Amino acid sequence: MNLTLLILLFCGLTVAQDVHENVTEKTETQPFFPSDMCDLQRKIGAMKEQLAALANRQNNSEKRIEDLERKVIFSAATDGSGAVGPFNTDTILMQGFPKLISLFPHFVSTGVFTTSVSGTYYFTFFYHAGRDTQQLYVSTKMSSLLHEAMITKGGMMGLIMEGTVFVRLLAHTHIWAKNHITTFSGF
Q1: Which of 46, 68, 90 is at the close of a domain?
Q2: Are the C-beta atoms of 123 and 99 separated by less than 8 Å?
Q3: 122, 155 Cβ separation under 8 angstroms
Q4: Contact 106, 135 (CB under 8 A)
Q5: pTM of the predicted model, to two decimals?
Q6: What confidence tier does 140 reach under pLDDT thresholds 50, 70, 90?
Q7: 46 and 34 in one domain?
Q8: Three-state DSSP class for 100?
Q9: Where is the signal peptide (predicted)?
């Protein structure tokens, strides 16, 4: 029995020694605080700076886009070989003319300029008509009556958002369309 007891003690001692070695190895290779914690903090700080810079760039870009959206410009010119008109009824000019520089596709088909933002706008109308009469309308109210043979008419107008401006050719009158001689522009 002494021999059995001695063998059991010896086996217990070797098992205890193996467990102690495993615990020692784990604590030596895996410390409680990783050695690269400072590196992680530096990387997070750099990422915060980059995020702040990107947010600043986004704000600046949005401001520039808003400024560009407020810039409005269009110009329409007649393109034909003779007169436009006379018509039996009053007719909106610049409707469907192919020679058109505009940021507003709706203007091309209707000849009516609709403001996208409230503000002060400048419009010009150049035409040659041989003593016929045209009218410049702002939001369906006549603003100017034009009745010279060759005329340049321009003016500044305060318009609200979605205000409309167009040029109307009176019934039984005409203008010349050749060589882009008649134009309607605004900004």
Answers
A1: 68
A2: no
A3: yes
A4: no
A5: 0.52
A6: low
A7: yes
A8: strand
A9: 1-16
